[in-house]
Write a sequence for this structure.
């Protein structure tokens, strides 16, 4: 719905960038975890999610009047991902790599779910929920519930989180 709004109005007004940036970081992290674990479900879902989030970011950047702050945030995300990749492939031994990457992914997931709270101050100040996306909120709840059940089924505490 946010993407439709951007395309219809040719504006990113009232749509936050940070939640989608953290979601992209989340997808990329879990994609790495899925590749390391050899889990086809994690690989497929997060590869598709990363592509879609990256496309969303590109559309957001295209219609954003202030591109510089958004580009800096994207560069910061890329620096974190590259640093994380380097850390996990070079500095972490093979025996603990999956555990540490799982913890890293869990932290990113928590960040992703916390990032929409940046809108909470705006909601309280304006006494309006206009800037909150109800479809995104519902979809996030359904997706997180699905991943929790999947993690429980696999006995994987990191996916469960």
């Amino acid at each position: 719905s946010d993407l439709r709004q951007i395309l219809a109005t040719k504006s990113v007004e009232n749509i936050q960038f940070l939640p989608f940036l953290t979601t992209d970081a989340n997808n990329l992290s879990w994609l790495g975890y899925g590749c390391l674990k050899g889990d086809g479900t994690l690989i497929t879902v997060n590869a598709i999610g990363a592509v879609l989030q990256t496309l969303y970011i590109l559309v957001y950047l295209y219609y954003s009047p202030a591109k510089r702050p958004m580009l800096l945030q994207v560069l910061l995300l890329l620096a974190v991902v590259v640093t994380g990749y380097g850390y996990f492939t070079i500095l972490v031994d093979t025996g603990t790599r999956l555990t540490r990457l799982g913890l890293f992914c869990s932290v990113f997931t928590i960040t992703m779910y916390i990032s929409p709270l940046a809108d909470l101050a705006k909601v309280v100040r304006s006494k309006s929920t206009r800037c909150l996306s109800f479809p995104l909120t519902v979809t996030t709840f359904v997706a997180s519930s699905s991943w929790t059940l999947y993690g429980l089924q696999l006995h994987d505490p990191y996916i469960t989180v």
User: Anything to note?
Assistant: The two ends are 27 Å apart (CA to CA). The mean pLDDT is 86.
